[in-house]
Design brief:
single chain; alpha+beta; elongated; 33% helix
Length: 66
């Protein structure tokens, strides 16, 4: 749910309101994302948000670890 760069050792949780916490032990990286997606409606909006979350996590991973 967070992107292709995270190792198999990474773990976390994504919440219904768009929040997420993800930990990448190999790079000593922890990402906490606090959002409120409750007002969003429709499958398109949900899909766009999931894509946004993956892109954000990937960008942070690249900047921090790569």
């Amino acid at each position: 749910p967070v992107g292709p760069l995270f190792s198999g050792q990474s773990y976390g949780h994504t919440g219904d309101t768009g929040t997420s916490i993800w930990i990448e032990p190999e790079g000593q990286l922890m990402i906490v994302m606090l959002t409120n997606r409750i007002q969003s409606e429709g499958e398109q909006t949900q899909s766009a948000f999931i894509d946004f979350r993956r892109q954000l996590h990937t960008l942070i991973h690249r900047r921090w670890i790569s």
